[in-house]
Amino acid sequence: MKKTYIAATLSLALLGYTSVSQADTNLDNVGIYVGAGYGQYSFQFEDRENDIDFDDDAGVLKGYVGAQFTPYLGIELAYLNFDELNDNDSYSEVDGYSLAGRLSLPLSERFSLYAKGGWFEWEAKVSANTPAFIDISSTQEGGDVFYGVGMQYAFTQHWQTRLEYERFELKDDIEPDMDVASLSIQYMF
Predict the structure, then answer these.
(1) Contact predicate 122/92, CB 8 Å
(2) What is the tens place of the pLDDT at every residue in 79-123?
(3) pLDDT tens-digit profile of 162-187?
(4) 72: closest CA among 38, 132, 115, 39?
(5) What secondary structure letter does DSSP report for 109?
(6) Model-wide pTM > 0.70
(7) Considering Cα of 85, then 90, then 91, then 92, what sign does the dihedral take?
(8) Residue spans of beta strands (DSSP E) within the chain
(9) Which of 4, 55, 85, 115 has the fewest CB atoms in 10 Å of its CB?
(10) What single DSSP character describes residue 134?
(11) Is 111 within 8 Å of 153 (Cβ atoms)?
């Protein structure tokens, strides 16, 4: 009787382990997801007319929500808050929203590469002291195309992580280039 009980318990435990293992390896990576990330960005700005040259690095926080329609195609809405930059005579702060399409290339059930591109709607506050000791300050708004690439790894059906690079080239009067490298964690429903 005791041996039968132990055998039945071990069989149920093995069956439960097998079910969990099969559930974790049956990753379809399709659905609605939310995520948050942190990264570093490089901000480069040059105003030849006023003899201003600005180049600095800072952190960026991002939050996003998206939908992966197939393992290959998705869409994503994100908010990016770029930390304030200060280069002695110059100050800059940028934030904005992006909407992007995502093309993914699954390399395995857990690992995929992707490219994304879309529209970035932004607001920038820039202040600078010129060599003539004149303080120039302005708030700019605009929208521009951006693009990026990344890789994604699924720990489980629901929890995933991403490492990505994005390039923002703002085309308004300030014309800065921003390169962003970030690490994110996301939850897929």
Answers:
(1) no
(2) 999 888 776 667 778 899 999 999 999 999 999 999 999 999 988
(3) 999 999 887 765 566 789 999 999 99
(4) 115
(5) S
(6) yes
(7) negative
(8) 31-47, 52-68, 73-82, 85-87, 90-106, 111-129, 135-154, 159-169, 177-188
(9) 4
(10) -
(11) yes
